[in-house]
């Protein structure tokens, strides 16, 4: 009887033969990306949502798991081409909608290495060097914020929303433990006999509301702190709310905005830190976007006092020019991350492996298996250097100020406010009795469907409680020129005038 030895079912990427295969496949993909890039006419293909759905239906015909597999080069080529053709070209100067900066080349290369080696951070035996690299990056980022790196801690996360959820978890658990000597993560909130509350300013990121919902605190237990005319939280009002809390309510956190995504608002961090310490409340600074100011000698002063916060959210896939996800949650005291530990992590009560240094990150993260984002951050930052990163931030800020000045000079455009960072809010002012909110919403959709520009939209609240629709330019590409910005605004004005004429004549 003859036994047939089956061939390999697939080519593991990390073997010698697999690496050669990866080289060929990557070259195929890069050739396609260059072809698609050369054929582009705008930041996205024209056609809007219907065009994207139609392209996807054609490219994805057939099952995800066919009975018989196909040739890797052909399968990759087919999907990569469609994916690229309908991807947003974030290097295009008119890609101004979202916080997606074009990543550095070296960071993109590091992503490939991370995928091939497929390390994980949950256990020492899943990524020994990766764990050391991860801890080093966290320590370096803690120093950037101003923390004492010997006491600070943190973790890389998938984004600001997860960072904020983790921060609210630590705030709840640490404050309750300090004030009541009990652990919410063990007993649950109901048995504690108190209602945790969180203080936030108006306009705080929606992820904070979602976090308190998930943590069982409840959105009804957010206490909104009044803001001043500049949109900043009023410290005296926060102090008043904390002082006047009724019996049965326990404040666990003050959430400060440290660079809002629309107006660039930074709450008064030094004053809020004093109030938080006075009342024994956790202070969290959401600097997911605003942390970019830390790289700039010109703008760093905006975040004075951030080192007094108990935790800080920052996203390097915004101002760090690294691919998503590259986010971090940093904490002033590493021991506050106990909320995520399922077992002791000190040699006093841990097993012999832990005492010998075989420690993973499972006790400092929401995730168990976790990808290694630290590699792309480290190679990108080391390649650029502090001076270059600071210059890139300043260039984006200069572009925002140029756009704001140009908008102010146009009679048909209204500027929302001077941009403290890189977001520029504005809107077109139609005549003929046309509703400006509806007009600007339609204008945004029109230029996106044509594939000529990608813009965001937001609302600016008025003192009477109403709000107005504004369009937003998010400038995170330091390669954009002022001339390109001027042409984008010129084209937008021409399209708006055409839309206004058509609406007036209808």
TrEMBL record:
UniProt cross-references to PANTHER family, sorted A to Z: CYSTEINE SULFINIC ACID DECARBOXYLASE, GLUTAMATE DECARBOXYLASE-RELATED
Annotated InterPro entries: PyrdxlP-dep_de-COase (IPR002129), PyrdxlP-dep_Trfase (IPR015424), PyrdxlP-dep_Trfase_major (IPR015421), PyrdxlP-dep_Trfase_small (IPR015422)
Tell me the domain of life.
Answer: Bacteria
Needed cofactors: pyridoxal 5'-phosphate
Family recorded in the similarity comment: Belongs to the group II decarboxylase family.
Q: What is this protein called?
A: Aspartate aminotransferase family protein
Annotated GO molecular function terms are: transaminase activity
């Amino acid at each position: 009887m003859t036994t047939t030895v089956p061939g390999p079912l697939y080519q593991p990427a990390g073997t010698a033969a697999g690496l050669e295969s990866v080289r060929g496949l990557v070259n195929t993909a890069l050739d396609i990306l260059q072809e698609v890039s050369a054929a582009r006419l705008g930041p996205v293909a024209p056609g809007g949502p219907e065009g994207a759905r139609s392209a996807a239906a054609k490219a994805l015909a057939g099952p995800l798991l066919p009975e018989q597999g196909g040739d890797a080069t052909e399968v990759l080529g087919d999907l990569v081409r469609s994916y690229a053709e309908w991807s947003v070209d974030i290097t295009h100067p008119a890609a101004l909608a979202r916080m997606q900066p074009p990543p550095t080349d070296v960071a993109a290369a590091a992503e490939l290495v991370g995928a091939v080696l497929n390390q994980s951070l949950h256990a020492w035996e899943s990524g020994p060097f990766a764990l050391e690299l991860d801890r080093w990056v966290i320590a370096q980022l803690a120093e950037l914020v101003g923390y004492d790196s010997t006491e600070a801690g943190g973790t890389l996360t998938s984004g600001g929303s997860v960072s904020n959820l983790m921060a609210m978890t630590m705030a709840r658990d640490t404050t309750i433990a300090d004030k009541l000597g009990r652990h919410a993560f063990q007993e649950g909130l109901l048995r504690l006999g108190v209602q945790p509350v969180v203080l936030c300013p108006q306009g705080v990121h929606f992820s904070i509301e979602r976090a308190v919902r998930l943590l069982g605190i409840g959105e009804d237990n957010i206490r909104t702190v009044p803001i001043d005319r500049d949109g900043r939280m009023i410290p005296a009002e926060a102090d008043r709310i904390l002082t006047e809390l009724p019996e049965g309510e326990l404040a666990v956190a003050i959430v400060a905005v440290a660079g809002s995504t629309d107006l660039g608002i930074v709450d008064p961090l030094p004053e809020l830190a004093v109030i938080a310490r006075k009342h024994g409340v956790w202070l969290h600074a959401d600097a997911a976007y605003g942390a970019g100011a830390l790289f700039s000698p010109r703008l760093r002063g905006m975040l004075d006092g951030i080192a007094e916060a108990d935790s800080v959210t920052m996203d390097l896939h915004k101002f760090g020019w690294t691919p998503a996800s590259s986010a971090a949650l940093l904490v002033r005291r590493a021991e506050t991350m106990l909320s995520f530990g399922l077992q002791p992590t000190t040699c006093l009560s841990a097993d012999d492996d832990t005492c010998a240094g075989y420690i993973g990150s499972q006790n400092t993260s929401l995730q168990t298996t976790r990808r290694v984002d630290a590699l792309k951050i480290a190679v990108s930052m080391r390649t650029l250097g502090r001076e270059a990163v600071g210059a890139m931030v300043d260039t984006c800020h200069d572009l925002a100020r140029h756009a704001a000045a140009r908008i102010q000079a146009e009679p048909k455009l209204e500027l929302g406010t001077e941009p403290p960072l890189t977001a520029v809010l504005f809107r077109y002012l139609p005549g003929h009795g046309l509703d400006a909110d509806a007009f600007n919403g339609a204008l945004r959709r029109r230029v996106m469907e044509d594939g000529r520009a990608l813009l965001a939209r937001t609302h600016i609240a008025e003192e009477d409680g109403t709000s107005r629709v504004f369009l937003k330019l998010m400038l995170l590409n330091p390669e954009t020129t002022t001339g390109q910005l001027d042409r984008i605004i010129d084209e937008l004005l021409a399209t708006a005038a055409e839309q206004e004429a058509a609406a007036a004549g209808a």
